[in-house]
Amino acid sequence: MDNIIIVPLLAATLRMAAPLIFAGLGGVFSEKSGVVNIGLEGMMIMGAFFAVFGSYTTGSPIIGILFAMIAGGVIAAIHGFLSIHLRADQIISGTAINLFATALASFLIGPIFKTGGQTNIVKGLSYNLPGFLKNVPILNSLNWFVILAIVLVFVSNYVIFKTPLGLRIRAVGEHPSAADTLGISVYKMRYLCVIISGVLAGLGGAALSIGITPLYRDGMVAGRGFIALAAMIFGNWKPFGTMWACMLFAFGTAFQMVAQGFSISLPNEFYQSIPYILTMLALAGFVGKTEAPRADGKPYIKGER
């Protein structure tokens, strides 16, 4: 009986964690370079919608994923322009992007799909395993987004902490003036990282739509961009820490789905609030115990000391 509950719970946790991991990794890249990105929510919304749009118009979920990554990257470039070039308040810029993305996706549903509030069901990404793996518990209940998310955690950790590019990213996020004197372009590195964050957040949106439910509907992202941001902070701005934090929050989502089938009579709203309660408790417990990059959220003015 325990296996009947535990195996689906673990599989659901991994599936729900994938979108958070993509967006959380995006947040790590952006903030390691010194740009706060609370626009992850909006970038996920763009990714979720355009993944469905791409699959709908071409019949290919792979093209849909590319659409999602491009859409996330484009809106991230806007955030980068406002935050880096114009030195706008990064929190306000991110908030504006979240509002804009929500409204744009909601508006586009009507003229493109001729429906209201929800798109048509489109072709999702098939998950075909070799014969000998099809009977492996948990593994046979995942999708390719889960595997890609875990691979990208290792890749991101290697890039940030083991390569010259990663050293430059961390330099402009910690001491941009010193990095500038060494010939590192602070602006270029920050633009690169913000756009990477948008591409990854867009991929997270695609993992949520065509990776789990092959459609887009209003409110689908449901604050996951903010949860990913919280996971990044909880994970101390590191890829592996972010991944484990995403797993914790995804477990809350998976548990509320399974728990609604228990015989305990509680309002559905209570179960639905579990992942958000976990997020608040985790952040409250780790306030002051994590350390952001020193220049995070601080616009850089070339030549200023």
UniProtKB/TrEMBL annotation:
MF annotations from Gene Ontology: transmembrane transporter activity
InterPro entries per UniProt: ABC_transp_permease
GO cellular component: plasma membrane
The keyword Cell membrane belongs to this UniProt entry's keyword annotation: yes
Topology versus the membrane: Multi-pass membrane protein
Membrane spanning stretches: 6-28, 35-56, 62-84, 91-113, 142-161, 191-213, 219-237, 244-264, 270-288
Location (main, coarse): membrane
Keyword entries, A-Z: Cell membrane, Membrane, Transmembrane, Transmembrane helix
Subcellular location: Cell membrane
PANTHER family: GUANOSINE ABC TRANSPORTER PERMEASE PROTEIN NUPQ, SUGAR ABC TRANSPORTER INTEGRAL MEMBRANE PROTEIN-RELATED
Protein name: Branched-chain amino acid transport system / permease component
Species this chain originates from: Clostridium homopropionicum DSM 5847
